[in-house]
TrEMBL record:
Short name of any one Pfam family annotated for the protein: CYTH
Protein name in the entry: CYTH domain-containing protein
Organism for this UniProt entry: Sinosporangium siamense
SMART domains reported in the protein's UniProt record: CYTH
Gene3D superfamilies assigned: Hypothetical Protein Pfu-838710-001 (2.40.320.10)
SUPFAM superfamilies cross-referenced by the UniProt entry: CYTH-like phosphatases
CYTH domain ranges (all copies): 1-175
InterPro entries linked: Adenylyl_cyclase_CyaB (IPR008173), CYTH-like_dom_sf (IPR033469), CYTH_domain (IPR023577)
Amino acid sequence: MQEIEVKYRLHELTALEAALAQRDVTLSAPVHQDDQAYAQSGWSYGQSKIGVTFARLRTQEGRHLFTVKTPLANEMACLEHESQVADRDQMHEAIKQMGFRPTVRIVKIRRTAYLDGIALCVDQVEQAGLFLELETVAAATESGTAAQARLDGFARSLGVELHRVNDTYDSLIRQALSPA
C-alpha cells in the first residue's frame, strides 16, 4: 500500500475548525510526537528522494513506532511499512547498524480527525510552524499524484486559506535551521 499525503501551511486554525465543524468533524485532543528521521548512507539533502528508502522512529504516548518509507511519484506518495517496537534506544542503534544515519528530529503537537477515508492532521511543528496534512492510503498500483489531486480538491473545498508545500517536515525543519 501507499501512504499518500498533501501538506499545507495553515494560516488560521479557528477558520479550519469552523469549516470542519460544518461537516460535523472535530479535531482530537493534542498528542505529542517525537520523530527521529533517518536517511541511507550516501544520501544527502538536495538529492532526490524518489526511490530512496528512509526510516523514522516515532514516540507517541509511550509507544514507539518504526517506519520505512520509499517515495514513488514524489516525496509524499510513498510505499510505507510500520511496526511498533518495544525499545526506542535499541531500535535507534539497529537502524544505524542497518546503514541509516540520523538526520533531523521532528517534534510536533498533532490533532487528528477522520472523514471519508482521509486523515486530517493539524501539526504544530517545532521550528517549522502550523500545518494541515491530509493522508490517505492507496493501492500500490494507483497513481500517487492522482490521489494527491483528490486530497487537494478536498482541502480546497474547506474554503480556508492554505498554502500547499511540497516538502516533508524533515526538509522544512532543515531549511528553517539553515543559515540564510
